[in-house]
Amino acid sequence: MAATAYYLTRLRNLFAVVMLSGVYSLFAAALYMVLDAVDVAFTEAAVGAGISTVLMLGTLSMTTDKEKVRKKPPLTALILVFMTGGVLVYGTFDMPRYGDPNAPIHQHVANRFIERSGEEVGPPNIVTSVLASYRGYDTLGETAVVFTAAVGVLIIIGRSKDRSMPNAKAVRRREEDDDITHEPSAKEKEDASS
């Protein structure tokens, strides 16, 4: 994943960037599978590698395939990235170690889900019970966000060219005029020769 992220920052061909971001999402989905987060892995594969790649390719078809190259990256952005990364790493110091049986999640919540989800919710699958019932509002919110983002991108992609750019009508008329072969009349030939 680190190598993929490195090449994502180095590439200037946007088509290759879109394809590589889909590969990165597949690696992330595989990582979630290794961490036993099957539901998150499925969502990452479907949304990150699937729908996002299709939407980015659709957007790319309406733009250029080359990134504008800036002469010098702004130092402020680099400082901000390192500060944000430092805060995120600092936040992980307070977390329990991976697989720690004494972690708070293993003390009361997980045991209740394992023991009572079948009788309280109904489905025998614990992950489905958690996502559909115990965390139902959270799942509904996530679905609403993804749906709203998809609708927004489809609206942007679906806009007609006349409304998307102010001078698109004039550009289109000039292209149509260039494509039309105009046979000059006898009077126009006579005026051109004199």
Give a brief outline of the structure:
The protein is mostly helical. It has helices at 2-10, 14-34, 38-60, 75-92, 109-120, 126-134, 136-158, 161-164, 168-179, 186-193.
Please provide a written account of the structure.
The protein is an all-alpha fold and 194 residues long. It folds into 2 domains: 1-67, no CATH class; 108-180, no CATH class. The chain has helices spanning 2-10, 14-34, 38-60, 75-92, 109-120, 126-134, 136-158, 161-164, 168-179, 186-193. The mean pLDDT is 77.
Please supply descriptive tags for the structure shown above:
single chain, 194 residues, mainly alpha, 2 domains, 10 helices, elongated
Give the SSE string: HHHHHHHHHH
Write down the Rg: 27 Å
| Secondary structural class | mainly alpha
Q: Summarize the main sheet.
A: none
How many structural domains in the coordinates? 2
Shape call: elongated
Number of helices: 10
Q: What is the tally of beta strands? A: 0
Helix content: over 70%
**Overall mean confidence score, pLDDT:** 77
Q: Terminal Cα separation, in Å?
A: 72 Å
Kindly estimate the percentage of residues that lie in beta strands according to DSSP.
under 5%
Any low-confidence stretches, pLDDT <50, length ≥5? none
SSE layout:
Blueprint: H1 2-10, H2 14-34, H3 38-60, H4 75-92, H5 109-120, H6 126-134, H7 136-158, H8 161-164, H9 168-179, H10 186-193
